[in-house]
Amino acid sequence: VSGFGIRTIVLREYNTAGDGCYDTDTVIIEFMEQPYAYAGNDFIVCGLDFQLNATDYYADVDNISGNWTCVSSGTATFEDSTDPHTTVHYSDYGYATFRWRETAHPHIEVENGTTCSAFDVVTVTIYEKPSAELNMIEGDTAVCGLRFENLLAADDGYSGYWYEENTSTVFGAGSSTITDVTVSNYGRHDFYWIEYNGPMDNQ
Fold it and tell me: Are 68 and 100 in contact (CB under 8 A)?
């Protein structure tokens, strides 16, 4: 056929004697578009709650629907599995693969349950989110001079680094939980210990 849609096919049988005797039967066939599915690019997250982002090509098509499923061994809880941009909670850190399936359903009643579908998968790398904690016994403090000897952060096994908004500040060991710091001017300075898990470009 030249396009998608519902077509009526008529079969007519004639008596070969040519006496005008014939009978007809009809069958209705719906020619459906084969959907296309795109689950999005693989990505990295921190924490067990995140958003999936499939492309919904058929938002305005009444007979095509989408659905998320998890094809990994862990347990996934979707906020709305039919939403291409749903949020999901996954049970484990590591890798999880999710399948986005687009399914075209016929407008007519069919006995064989025929549908047309396509799917795509996305793999999510899930890192545990660190919990940075300073270990300063005296809490906020004051010091004489421009150097402070004992910046302390809790060592919980994650990578981290010290930060201050003033770019002239110099940390003795910027990626160590124990370091000294030298500033360029007197006054208040706020120092941050930042922890990360996974690649730096995902922070």
Answer: yes
What's the predicted TM-score (pTM) here?
Answer: 0.72
pLDDT digits (tens, 9 = 90+) for 56-66: 887 777 788 89
Residue 200 pLDDT: 54
Structure tokens that stand for 195 in this block: 């922890």
DSSP string, the chain: --SSEEEEEEEEEE-TT-SS-EEEEEEEEEE-PPP--B----EEEESSEEE---B-TTTT-TTEEEEEEE-SSS-EEES-TT-TT-EEEESSSEEEEEEEEEEE--SS--SS---EEEEEEEEEEEEPPP---B--TT-S---SSSEEEEEEB---S-EEEEE-SSTT-EETTTTSSEEEEE-SSSS----EEEEE-S-GGG-
